[in-house]
Amino acid sequence: MRRFAASAACLVMLGSIPSCGGSAATNERSSYVDKMPPPEEPLVMKTTEVGSYGGRFIIAGNSSPQTFNPVVSTSTYSADITDQLFVSLSQYRLDRQERAPSLASSWSCTDDAMSCTFHLRRGAKFSDGHPITSEDVIFSFNVLLDERIASYQRDYYQMEGVPLAVEAPDAFTVIARAPKPNADLVGIVSSASILPKHVLEPAFKSGTFNSAYALSTPPDQLVTSGPWTLKQYLPNERTVLTRNPYWFDVDANGQRLPYLDELTFLVVPDAEAADLKFRAGEADALVQPSPANAQWYLDHQQEGGFTAYDVGPELSISAMFFNQNIGVDGKAPPVGRVKASWFQNPLFRRAVSMAIDREAMIQSVLSGRGVKSWAGATPGDKLWGALDVPHDDHAPEGARTLFESLRLSDRDGDGTVEDSAGHPVAFTLNVSSGSPAVVAMGNFIRDDLAKVGVKVTLAPMDFNSLSAAVNQSHQYDAVLMGYTRGRPEQPSTRLWTSTGLHPWQKPLAQPLSPEQQRVDELARQIVGSTDYEARKRWLLELETIVNKQAWVIWLPVPIRVKPVRNGFGNVHPSVLSPSAAGILWNGEEIFMKVQALETH
């Protein structure tokens, strides 16, 4: 994986059918011969093993990409693929948990954390053989920062509304300048996918960039900068990638990567079907097995011919969010004025949090393989996840007391509380229909809230529609979603700022409350400092405000197992990403071992 960016994600629950099969079909010795000249300035990868060409790797998930355009993508399923198709200036190595060179062979930053100079790798090329230069980097940032482009990522590259300044003194040097000190400047700049100016500039100039690199784009017209290029896309069935013949990574023997002939993202109807595909030997890995099935995978590794990597508590947050968007120009809020009066009140949200029995949810929905989490950094985050943040855990009597303080009570004895105008306190909770675990959590929340007099209607919907409701139309009452962490080496602050991409409210031009203003101030301090202890203190204060305001209703996070078929080398699954990237972050280094090629 070359970059980390916050994007919507869903938890995945897989079936428990007690059968297992062989290995993904039709892997055979490759006839591939690298006929291209060696890279001028190769990046020599320190892989665990030196591999050979051949084979394919199939990973199963339950959603298709939305687009092949990394700038306008809003879902993890799209990012899993575009991260393979497009390179960035540096990469974050999940095995070593450190930032490493990629398109930029080196970089240096000023002591004031306001400027970084990147030196580009000479001889790097796009998948059509066109050279990658600083012009492409500048073009990529011009696209990202253009307000005509429908990109949620724009806020990454701004500080208090002022964008980064990116310039190129020559073809192989890029300088990024921040308007204020930013300790994460290298990571921020490296979140940008490098796009082919010679291909996409006409669309950018004509105002059609938002539809560029759509799913209908013929593979031979989708020019990429990363280790892979598109070979085939079959809607709701599969996306097949093949190697970029000009990629600049090589192994210790000078052999160009990727090793594999194909990387396939298999789409199945639901999580149960994904589980069946893996156990039948039709997939080599699963995106996200459920905790309910974790023990089965741990117990059946030898006879199943796979390795179940027990990677620990997930780093992505799991939470319930209320729609707190306000009305504009005198119009009613998207949820209407009645519901808005509840959802926008922190005491209401805290009461909802107190009604949820998370320990019972862990034992039931997560089969005991879960932990409570009360902040943007979960207990799986060893750097930022150990903060003792005040929180509202299960306390149904406390929930009733808070409702009564808001004059919400069961006035007619029907078991549902009403407000002072007689409106029953009821709302719809949207969840991802493709994840039984998320649906089960939604049912759990519905039942717990019924015990304190709140009526919840559960409404499952497909993930892409759910993402569009949250990020585009804003037509929802409440949602249960997961959100991926940003760059692991940095604390999570962007989700909380007034201008950030948060599911409960559209980005704001300015804070609407003193609490939001203080959070913005703390986020600036955290971002602008390199003092670890000071940053932890500020982060604790920020997370305390978040929990007192109850902008999110925290839910437990699963302890993850990632099963991968045996017979592949350089496989290093990581909990640092909950999606396919947690397995394929180093996809160009993965190879099929000779004995597997010979037997399949």
Biggest pleated-sheet summary: 6 strands, mixed
Distance between the termini: 28 Å
Overall helicity: 25-40%
Named CATH topology of the largest domain: D-Maltodextrin-Binding Protein, domain 2
What general outline do the C-alpha atoms trace? globular
The poorly predicted ranges are 4-23
Q: What is the CATH superfamily label of the largest domain?
A: Periplasmic binding protein-like II
Radius of gyration: 24 Å
Q: Structural class, judged by helices and strands?
A: alpha+beta
Named CATH architecture of the largest domain: 3-Layer(aba) Sandwich
- The number of helical segments is 17
Oligomer kind: single chain
Total DSSP E strands: 26
The proportion of strand residues reads 15-25%
Q: Count structural domains.
A: 2
What would the average pLDDT be, to the nearest integer?
89
State the CATH class of the largest domain: Alpha Beta
Summarize the structure.
With 600 residues, the chain is an alpha+beta fold. It is built from 17 helices and 26 strands.
Keywords:
single chain, 600 residues, alpha+beta, 17 helices, 27% helix
Would you write up a description of this structure?
This protein is an alpha+beta fold and 600 residues long. 27% of the residues lie in helices and 20% in strands. It is built from 17 helices and 26 strands. Strands 1, 18, 20, 21, 22 and 23 form a 6-stranded mixed sheet that branches. Strand 4 and strand 5 form a beta hairpin. The longest helix has 18 residues, at 532-549. The two termini are 28 Å apart.
Please render the helix and strand layout as text.
Blueprint: E1 8-9, E2 43-44, E3 56-61, H1 76-85, E4 90-93, E5 98-101, E6 104-109, E7 115-120, H2 134-145, E8 158-159, E9 162-163, E10 165-170, E11 173-177, H3 185-189, H4 197-206, E12 228-234, E13 238-243, E14 249-250, E15 262-267, H5 271-279, E16 285-286, H6 291-299, H7 301-304, E17 306-313, E18 317-322, H8 337-343, H9 346-355, H10 358-364, E19 370-371, H11 396-405, E20 426-432, H12 436-450, E21 455-461, H13 463-473, E22 478-483, H14 514-528, H15 532-549, E23 553-554, E24 557-565, E25 568-569, H16 581-584, E26 591-592, H17 594-599
Parallel strand pairs: 2-14, 3-15, 3-16, 20-21, 20-22
Antiparallel strand pairs: 1-22, 4-5, 6-7, 7-11, 8-9, 10-11, 12-13, 13-15, 17-24, 18-22, 18-23, 19-24, 25-26
Helix pairs in contact: 2-4, 9-11, 14-15
